[in-house]
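Hey, I'm writing a tutorial for new members on how sequence and structure tokens pair up, and I'd like a real worked example in the thread rather than a made-up one. If someone can provide the structure for the chain below, I'll link this post from the tutorial.
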Amino acid sequence: MSVDFEALRKELNVCLGNDPNGDLCYFSDNRAENCLGFAFRDFGLPRECFNGEKLIREAIRLLEEETRKKAEILEILKKYAAGEKSGGVDADIRTAKEY
């Protein structure tokens, strides 16, 4: 049995909030890291300009949201990978020379 990549793409698109029939576009969000950057890095602005406690709470919220989304993506990928033939993923990957 092989992976139905069309169904996988559609399910991942739905998970990511994209058009199910569109191209798969997934980019990791860096908003939480940006919040931490403003809280701890020197951007040439006085730190008093930022509410560090709010930035930390927002970073926590964003990381929790990102973690939930990545866990959902991981479960979808595992579900499709479990249906693969016994050779596994590596058995079906061709090297660039084979193309």
